[in-house]
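G., before I forget:
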Amino acid sequence: MIERLCIIGVGLIGGSLARALREAGACQEVVGAGRNAGNLQTAVDLGVIDRFETDLARAVAGADMVVVCVPLGAMEAVFAGIRGQLEKHAVLTDAGSAKGSVIEAAQRAFGHVPEFFVPGHPIAGTEQSGVEASFSSLYVDRRVILTPLPATAANATDRVREMWQAAGAQVVSMDPVHHDAVLAATSHLPHVLAFSLVDTLSRLDETDEVFDYAAGGFRDFTRIASSDPVMWRDICVANGDAIQLMIEHYIADLQSVSEAIQNQDGERLLDIFSRARAARDRYIDKQGRSG
Amino acid sequence: MIERLCIIGVGLIGGSLARALREAGACQEVVGAGRNAGNLQTAVDLGVIDRFETDLARAVAGADMVVVCVPLGAMEAVFAGIRGQLEKHAVLTDAGSAKGSVIEAAQRAFGHVPEFFVPGHPIAGTEQSGVEASFSSLYVDRRVILTPLPATAANATDRVREMWQAAGAQVVSMDPVHHDAVLAATSHLPHVLAFSLVDTLSRLDETDEVFDYAAGGFRDFTRIASSDPVMWRDICVANGDAIQLMIEHYIADLQSVSEAIQNQDGERLLDIFSRARAARDRYIDKQGRSG
């Protein structure tokens, strides 16, 4: 049981966690924190949080669990703002989509990575953002990856794991470098590709016409290009090396498809497309198990 | 009113057209044709067609409307098979996703592009294929592009337009070269990108894990990679020049995103991502009008 949960950054991710924990009876009080009082008041009105503070020191006072759900680029400033203000028994975690950069931010802000800090990443979300889009079942059957360091207190990791489990998630642990490589492949690269495709098309001469003749598949394919640009800018800066590596891989593969097209090499194209369809169908089957 | 409709290739596209026209009372009899008698019998059992022929000459006998819905690579053989067999008053059209190559196929098979042939392309479909996936409302409020040539009989174009309108579609006319450029951008490129992404990921060392941690957005993004590989091989061969040009555009833009990531140029990334989101949201709003 969490006595006082402090959510710093009450948007889709933080708001949904607060809703889930309240609904599960897993926390007694939720304090929201952030810079925008209007947004925080909305969160109170929606019943997502009990009260809010715009001052970070006041926000974390008395909290036994502090979850930082701000864009990656704002992590270090938040850490600096709560340094020395946390309760002795408090556990600190975050929900950033890249882990190496958050760990570095903690190191810079605190002087070392605190033993009570458990880096985390819920693999959930939609292209929506903001507390209005939050809902209590966002994490049900979703993965949450924790990337504790050797120095991280086992007890802190346990408490963060229990929190996410109470929200319905499946929690796994992973090395932060490995996390960043896997996420670069499976989430960061696709987002970059989708943003890039829509941007390419929007700069063609006949843009209006192009979008006019886009069919249903295009809408699905580009849905993730409606995601929050600030969040994705921060991810690309924070996990740049891993993302760049994946882009290089991808461009090489795409160039080889392009060559096959140039050579009218139908056999090779059929090979690639069949292998891709089989891989995706295998993946869909796997996902079917956990919904 | 169509007296006898002949659908050559009874899958998702041909089957859905037959269903729609029957439901609208816009045709009296539907004859299916193809090479696979088992599939055609399924189409009869499902009530999609009245009867079938596996011999093309017999299939088109007595038909006043012949619609060829086979993969692009099979067009020329079908045209050769029906050459000299069509009724004098018959109109011929197709549903191929690229138009230049179909027109060339007709030219080779018939010796010239017949005046009764109206090249066409319904912008509809799902990643499913086969007559079992067909449904009568597939074309409702969807675009159908016709690309008649100067020599095409106006009366033939009118009859094909009326057919698609009876199926619920919005019919527009376009130059075939322009059609192929627009579709390369809006449909062919995204499919190549999706196939290529899944293929890239499926050849990483930790493939299982990669797909394990893929979230909802990835499923949407890669849905089109579950499309029929044969159909897409044919499209890539048939519309190769236009697709290659789009891939080149895309790689150049992606490389510039990659550079911005390398330089940690957050401003440039935010610019690109914001522009893309705005373009997509504008497009979504437009589509909202027609559902």
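The beta strands of chain B are 2-8, 27-33, 51-53, 65-68, 91-94, 117-118, 120-122, 143-146, 170-173. Chain B has two domains: 2-174, 178-290.

More on Monday.
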